Amino acid sequence: MIKISRVVVLGTGTMGSGIIQVIAQSGYRVKMQDISDYLLSRAQQRIEKSLSKLVEKKKISVEEKDNILSRIVPGTSLDVVSDADLIIEAVPEQLDLKVGIFGELDKLAPKHAILASNTSSLPITAIAAATKRPQQVIGMHFMNPVPVMRGVELIRGRVTSQETIDSAVEFTCSINKIPVVAQDYAGFITSRVLNAYLNEAAYTVMDGNTPKDVDDAMVYCTNMPQGPCALMDLVGIDVIVYVLGILENEFGPKFKAAPLLRQMMRAGHLGRKSGRGFYEY
Ligand SMILES: NC(=O)c1ccc[n+]([C@@H]2O[C@H](COP(=O)([O-])OP(=O)(O)OC[C@H]3O[C@@H](n4cnc5c(N)ncnc54)[C@H](O)[C@@H]3O)[C@@H](O)[C@H]2O)c1
Predict the structure, then answer these.
(1) Does residue 281 register a pLDDT over 90?
(2) Same domain, yes or no, for 198 and 165?
(3) pTM of the predicted structure, to 2 decimals
């Protein structure tokens, strides 16, 4: 198994900054890389704000907050990976972009390093094929918001080695998250099961049930923490339709988006971000 002590995170947006925070909070020194100094300082501010909330709630001291921040080292060049044991990529969800980055990483990272992608929908096997070490490529699918969500889906590509899986499992536990290993088919476990459920909920609204009744049924009768319509509004109707399209491509018509979701998209009722979805905001 590879002993992981030096970690680099590529991309410091919504997911990257959360991943950097939890890794630094667990005592690791972590390098973060993005395409401009402005984006790096924005990530630093975001992490500082998140840690300040923990100080306010008395979960960490001011001294601990300062120590965590001091363990985060920014850089704009991909050369930051030259001494890494583990690199976690969290750049935008575009296969071409990720494939290009993994090709570069393969040249720049030490031979033993594990290359991980935080992709939520792209095949790890295709990303791994851009390298000469596909056995050391794995999916590490963190959930949003990273500091809050407990689980991390670890995606086993077609040729990911057991040693790589074991190392990633050990690392995930060391940052106080629960690892779950999933096979490399579209949507892995989480997105596939969740989106089938959300799509079916949209059909029950088409049947004439109100979004509130659908949500109340699932919250009070099955103990879901949140109703599916409220969750779809939070995620974005456009995002749900996009992911269903990927699942339909791989698994066929059972994942065809409910006509209601397409109609809502056409009306611009995308959920919270547009002020209206199943509910008004
Ligand atoms: N947002 C979510 O809820 C969520 C959940 C799970 C997984 N994901 C996945 O995580 C990944 C990142 O998503 P996000 O929401 O954090 O995106 P984001 O747009 O918030 O952040 C992406 C960051 O990557 C940077 N970037 C772009 N090109 C780069 C390059 N060549 N090198 C280094 N950095 C580069 C951008 O400047 C930006 O800071 C995606 O693959 C996404 O599918 C997202």
Answers:
(1) yes
(2) no
(3) 0.92
Q: Give 235 Cα–ligand 1 centroid separation in angstroms.
A: 16
Indicate the top mutation candidate among 17, 87, 91 to test ligand 1's pocket, ranked by most ligand atoms within 8 A of CB: 91
pLDDT of 121: 85
Strand order in the sheet with 137-142: 72-75, 30-33, 7-10, 86-89, 114-117, 137-142, 151-156, 178-183
Contact predicate 141/152, CB 8 Å? yes
What's the confidence (pLDDT) of residue 127?
97
Bridge pairing between strands 30-33 and 7-10: parallel
CA of 118 to the centre of ligand 1 (A): 8
What pLDDT is recorded for position 100?
98
Domain boundary (149, 183, 217) is at 183
Asked if the structure places residue 130 within a domain, the reply is yes
Mean pLDDT of the chain, nearest integer: 97
pLDDT digits (tens, 9 = 90+) for 184-195: 999 999 999 999
Report the separation in Å between the CA atom of 46 and the middle of ligand 1, taken as the mean of its atom positions.
15
Does any ligand 1 atom lie closer than 6 A to the CB of residue 90? yes
Q: Is 12 in the pocket of ligand 1 (CB under 6 A)?
A: yes
Same domain, 70 and 157: yes
In a domain, 224, yes or no: yes
Query: Which of residues 150, 183, 216 is at a domain's end?
Result: 183
